[in-house]
Amino acid sequence: MIEISHVDKWYSTAFQVLKDCTTNVAKGEVVVVCGPSGSGKSTLIKCVNALEPFQKGDITVDGTKVNDPRTDLPKLRARVGMVFQHFELFPHLKIIDNLCLAQEKVLGRAHDKAVTKGMMLLERVGLKEHAQKFPAQLSGGQQQRVAIARALAMDPIAMLFDEPTSALDPEMISEVLDVMVDLAREGMTMMVVTHEMGFARKVANRVIFMDRGEIVEDAPKDDFFGKPRSDRAQKFLSKILSH
Amino acid sequence: MLGSFDFDVIRRSLPYLFYEGMTFTLTLTALSALGGLIFGTAIALMRLSGYKILGRIAGLYVDFMRSLPLVLVIFWFYFLVPYIGQWLTGASRPISVGAFASSLITFIMFEAAYFSEIMRAGIQSISRGQPAAANALGLTYAQTMRYVVLPQAFRNMLPVLLTQTIVLFQDTSLVYVLSIPDFLGAASKVAQRDGRLVEMYLFAALVYFTISCVASVGVRRLQSRIAIIR
Amino acid sequence: MTYNWNWGIFFQPNPMGTGTYLDLLLSGLVLTLETAVLAWIIALITGSIVGVMRTLPSRGAYWFGFAYVEFFRNMPLLVQLFLWFFVLPEILPKAAGLWLKQLPNAPFWTASIGVGLFMSARVAVQLQAGIGSLPRGQRQAATALGLTTVQGYRYVLLPMAFRIILPPLTSEFLNTIKNTAVAITIGLLELTGQARSMQEFSFQVFEAFTAATILYLLVNAVVVTGMRILERYVAIPGYITGK
Questions:
Q1: Across residues C98-118, what is the average pLDDT?
Q2: What is the pTM of this model?
Q3: Are B72 and C216 in contact (CB under 8 A)?
């Protein structure tokens, strides 16, 4: 579904953020990407839907080459859902309108169909009664669930999560993770940048460990947690699991 | 058209334009900025003093001045100042004060309203802990302002004050309505006399543009230097 | 010698034969408002376009926006009006110049366009700052949903940016009204101009200027009140502006 091969990215000639990154995510697979901050994991995931440009290598999503100038990027992005660290709901739109905007403007769905779809998804994330509120009236956890519903409303073939729980108060993390676990169990293709190792243990097929722009480790979940091969991954795991 | 463009009229009038016109403009700008700054600081301090009546009067003054077009204010003072002079000196006739003095008073009074708002924002940008710390050391209100708050605030707002001074420099061209030979007035006089409007106004525009541009680049440099120091 | 007050002057006929002196001033007020409104429309439209250009990723657009703003910001408004009024008709091709010179209401059109363009640079700067103050993720979220750049601005960035800059835009509108007085120099008989001619005809200088002052204060109060209502109308529940 998502093939990343030999991707290099420089911010300036002196600073390389991604170094020869190669991996792939099969249909229905859940891949967790972890690593210390500044390791390039958010950048890598943003390259998948071309939010970040890269200079070398190729990324293909469902047979479409992301870095081909002829690719209709808005069309491609509409098929790949993305959830951001800071939710990025549109503050001037009601919750239901947040869900309808791209359905109508990008997919061209009729308003009532978009609303029906939106309400269905809000019910699924347990926020149906908040449809007429504005984002600022919801808690962080609720906003992130809305953001997931907004991405799902586009009927994506894959979902990208960029540290979806990092900006949340601790007591709100589980409500978001629950939604993500359900999604994984239903067979959604997911690429998740997160430090939530509990989530990784529960539903991930593979775990990728990145450090200084490189993919250091790319292993099935059990291998990764059982006996990571690299020193760096071991150190990282011991740090975040020690509490 | 450009073919009939007469550069010589500009060359011939350069001494008049700069010795008379630009000198007037720059002197008016500098003195107004200085006076506006002093008077504006006084107004800002009145507004922040905590005395309700004093604050209200200062606030009304600022709102009043900022509601009026500068052209109208120029006319107001042009006609009003002689009567104020008469009243102050007890003379039997309105006192003629001359174009420069009249303009200077106008711009000081007018710009003070704008400068005071910049000062107020600058003073309010200093954290409350600073005057508290100064008070705790036993400094009086005046000492706190003089030695602790104003020096810090002044540095924060220096770029804004200078930008406002560039605006003031451009605004002084409005004394044209009193037929005073500031830089634009001088250019206009030559333009009318020699029938060379295109040349003179384009030249005036170029001069204003160059001076303002160079000054804004300077302010931007200063701004980035201050930003690094902080 | 003391000044002879005569407040009754307003109800005496003016020498233009257009009713009383009060009518003279009111006709000036109407012209001030007409000029200001037309100038404001021009300022909003062109200022928005230029402001948006300064936030686009394209370097060319950015530099055009930069040059535009610097051009209109670094010359006195009075000089700009002279350029449009006296210089432009002379340097245009003969036919176009002649047409301009014979235009009825030339001071009105010159003042509206001149003040409008002058103010557009300031609107552009405000809008650029407004868009710049939005979280970077908002643009990314819009892009990730498949919205095009135009759609992203239209539905996501601009609605928020304009709400944020509403208070400074109010001041800029008030400045537009005040700046129309500069057009007295090209013969526009707006409020200040009519007060000046009343002073010249009747010698009641202080009555004339007092009346004009009161009218300006009234206009200010009306605009400020109107904008407060507008601000409340477009306010977003739960969203704290200026954060």
A1: 92
A2: 0.88
A3: yes
Query: Is C94 exposed, middle or buried (CB count within 10 Å of its CB: 0-12, 13-18, 19+)?
Result: exposed
Taking residue C196's Cβ as centre, other Cβ atoms within 10 Å add up to 22
Task: Give me the percent of chain B exceeding a pLDDT of 90.
Answer: 49
CATH of A2-241 among 1.10.490.10, 3.30.470.30, 3.40.50.300, 3.30.230.10: 3.40.50.300
A190-193 and A30-34 beta bridge pairing: parallel
Q: Which residues of C touch B177 (CB under 8 A)?
A: 184-185
Q: Is A137 exposed, middle or buried (0-12, 13-18, 19+ CB in 10 A)?
A: middle
Distance CA A210, CA A30 (A): 17
Q: Does A86 touch chain C (CB under 8 A)?
A: yes
Beta bridge partners of A178: none
Q: Is B213 on the interface with C (CB under 8 A)?
A: yes
| Average pLDDT value for residue range A123-149 | 95
Is it the case that residue B1 has pLDDT exceeding 70?
A: no
Range C128-134 contact pairs with CB under 8 angstroms and sequence separation of 24 or more:
C128/C51, C128/C54, C128/C55, C128/C65, C129/C165, C130/C51, C130/C160, C130/C161, C130/C162, C130/C164, C130/C165, C131/C51, C131/C52, C131/C55, C131/C157, C131/C158, C131/C161, C132/C55, C133/C161, C133/C164, C134/C160, C134/C161, C134/C164
Strand locations in chain C (E): none
Distance CA C236, CA A136 (A): 8
Tell me the domain boundaries of chain A.
2-241
Contact C140 A134 (CB under 8 A): no
- Cα B26 versus chain centre, distance: 11
Contacts of C174 in chain B (CB under 8 A): 67
Q: Find, among A138, A139, A145, the residue nearest to A161 by Cα.
A: A145
Q: Do C185 and B176 touch (CB under 8 A)?
A: yes
Does B154 reach chain C within 8 Å, measured CB to CB?
no
Q: How far apart are CA C64 and CA C59, in angstroms?
A: 9
Please report the pLDDT score of residue B132 as a whole number. 85
CB-based burial of residue B141 (10 Å sphere; 0-12 exposed, 13-18 middle, 19+ buried)? middle
Nearest Cα neighbor of A66 from A55, A76, A56 is A76
What kind of fold does domain C20-234 have according to CATH? MetI-like fold (1.10.3720)
Which CATH architecture best describes the domain B2-226? Orthogonal Bundle (1.10)
Domain extent listing, chain B? 2-226
**Residues facing residue A161 across a β-bridge:** A83, A192
Closest B-chain CA to C212: B72
What pLDDT, on the 0 to 100 scale, is given for residue C242? Answer: 41
Q: Is A139 on the interface with C (CB under 8 A)?
A: no
Coil, helix or strand at residue A217:
strand
ipTM: 0.91
Q: How far is CA A120 from CA A114, A155, B68, B177, C168, in A?
A: 10, 13, 57, 68, 41
Instruction: Judge contact between B201 and C86, C-beta under 8 A.
Output: yes
Q: Exposed, middle or buried by CB within 10 Å (0-12, 13-18, 19+), for A102?
A: buried
Please answer whether residues B11 and B22 qualify as being in contact, where contact means their C-beta atoms are separated by less than 8 angstroms.
no
User: 């051009």: which residue's tokens?
Assistant: C71
Question: Helix crossing, B99-124 with B70-89: angle to 10°?
Answer: 110
